[in-house]
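User: I'm writing a short report section on ligand binding and want a predicted complex to refer to. Could you take this sequence and acetyl coenzyme *A and write out the structure as tokens? A short remark afterwards would be nice.
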Amino acid sequence: MTYTRIVGTGSFLPANVVTNDDLARRVDTSDEWIVTRTGIKQRHIADPEQTSSDLAVEASKAALAAAGVGADELDVIIVATSTPDFVFPSTACLVQARLGTKGCAAFDVQAVCSGFVYALVLADSLIRAGQAGSALVIGSEVFSRILDWNDRSTCVLFGDGAGAVVLRADSRPGILGSMLHADGSQAEILAVPGNVSGGSIIGSPFLRMDGQAVFKIAVKVLDEVARETVARCGLSLDDIDWLIPHQANVRILEATAKRLKLPRERLIVTVDRHANTSAASVPLALDLAVRDGRIRPGHRVMLQGVGGGFTWGAALVEM
Ligand code: ACO
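Assistant: Sure. The structure tokens for the complex follow:
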């Protein structure tokens, strides 16, 4: 039997840190409002010339080094992003070239803040089907490019960054089980409803969100998908050592842990420092907790995505 194991993690954050007080000098907001409603204290924002592929390459190099795997050993590279460098080619193809390799499959996945979990499940399926022996899965975003910096209701919530994992086929189980879902009838509650056509932007190039609708659905589906995933693995919620939900908002994270009856100490939180980095948030949080020694070999980690589409999913991983 072939399984998929995570053999290395990496991440990268742009150097520029923007605090809530910095934002309060630009729009009518306050550190107190942002911290109380979201738990966010600061976010990293890419320089104007930094792209998703730039952040992805740095995160990938860190993950490959941690795994002791060379780029030329990869069979597939998948980048989850909603802020690609170009309409095409895919960011994954750009990353492949920058890692100095060619020949392996490379493509992007678009499932917004669920993108990393979607990409991880795809890579796991390719490995278990014998189509790939190793994979690089990346979540990378420059959400700062699709924010209206004059809209206080959205610009305070997001940040830029990238996280990556290297996967390998193994005879021991790593990814124990997963579930993916979508409900396209909720597309409007979180969207960048624009496109490029005939040389112009059609619609809006900025993120729009019904915050309360997103909050309600997120808490509900994160609870449901965690239960579905452990059941699929033949395990129970008590078997989860660490919970890493998509880092949208500390109130969503804490409500999810509470509903799943997991103590706060088993919840990994980075949203205070990174804000919401969309597809990058889960691998960024995973890498941070692996590197600071909280997540150790043998621990079971529940990774959860939720976001625009509306999309959601989870994977239970034994490290
Ligand atoms: N600073 C100060 N006041 C603000 C700000 C701000 N940054 N933003 C909005 N307000 C004001 C509003 O204008 C409104 O004022 P009014 O009452 O005078 O009209 C008031 O605060 C309340 O606005 P609400 O939108 O009702 O605030 P709410 O309590 O719902 O909090 C929030 C907004 C934090 C976005 C909340 O709805 C939420 O957490 N939603 C979850 C969405 C989320 O996390 N999205 C991230 C992306 S989605 C994802 O990744 C899955």
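A remark for your report: Residues 29, 33-34, 37-38, 113, 152-153, 156-157, 190, 209, 211-212, 214-215, 218, 246, 248-249, 276, 306-307 surround acetyl coenzyme *A (CB under 6 Å). The radius of gyration is 18 Å.
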